[in-house]
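User: DNA polymerase III subunit delta. Structure?
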Amino acid sequence: MDYGISKIIGHEKSIGFLNELFVNDRIPQGLLFYGQKNIGKRLVATSFAASVLCRDYSYCTGSRTVIKENPENPPALSLFEEKDYKDPKNEESGNYKTAGAKTLSGYFCGKCPSCIGVLNETNQNLIIVEPSGNSIKIEKIHQVNSLLSLTPSFGGHRFVIIDDAQAMNPNAMNALLKILEEPPDKTVFILISPVINGLLPTIVSRCSLLAFKPVPDEVLFDAFKAVLTETPDDILTVYSRLAKGSYSNFEKLAGGQYFETRKSILTLIFNEPFYSDPALLGYDMSDEFNRVLKNLNEKNKDKDNENKAELFEIFLFILRDVYIYRMTKNKKLLYNIDICESIGKFIKDSKITPQRLLNMIELTAEYIDKTGYNLNKTIAMDAYFSDILA
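Assistant: Predicted structure:
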């Protein structure tokens, strides 16, 4: 089985940059991965750390599974099958190419104690920090500092991955900054955030920045066509568009829950009162959204904020498609391309002006941004619908 960043789709440029750092032993002590949520940043971070730790284990313990070293560049070696290092042009001679090691250095073996620890989340040289609730508090950063004071289990690097780093409160950010100012030797911090401006500029300045872009639709299509061989191409095309550049979103779509939730929202939007005058719906629409949300929460327990964000993102992208199609009549620009006819009928029958649609889109995006805060959820939703239907 192959592991590691060489098997991750859609982020070749970022992975190439990390491989160069890996091969040349120039890994900085601060990295900041930023870009749209749920497009693979954490997976790349964890796989990169695992690859480095796998190599470290090999060199620190002398138990590498590769029989021969590349004499020109030993640090480039990672643990995977010896045949992958051989020069295909001179296989009988047993020569090993630096170029081959560079292109394949993103693997980790998945078998050594270090890799098993990563896969089981028990490797002491890999610390992962993520929000509790909606924030990362200073206590978590203090815990990291305490762990870093201990001797690594087998020497080599240590990695601290902070997911949703923008969720750190001010005290936590200041505590992290102090560590970054004088980081422990061979300790690498990887911060993951959808945006840069959610972090202290002094933290950002101490990190090498790596931008991640959404995975292209055609890449997602090809990846899933190889797995979902019996799924029609037109369905895979819809999945690819709705995934919005996210492999994990694509998997959720294939599970069918998205379409069930979207159907409930379409029932609310594509009805006569909304066509004629949304204000007539009043708080009834808030009640209906709460009903849909309740059903979603029952299927995905303990994920209230995520469920609410997902629900309103579906609503947002339907509104966005209605606006785009009304202004351009180009269905190729739609995310929900499979309901193009319903969108066209809505535009024909509706009295909602383009400006009104824009206002609704802006208010919805604003509300989604607020779902992560500690608000009274019922009051906040009622206020949202009061504004959007006014």
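The beta strands are 30-34, 126-129, 158-162, 187-193, 208-211. The chain has two domains: 5-211, 256-388.
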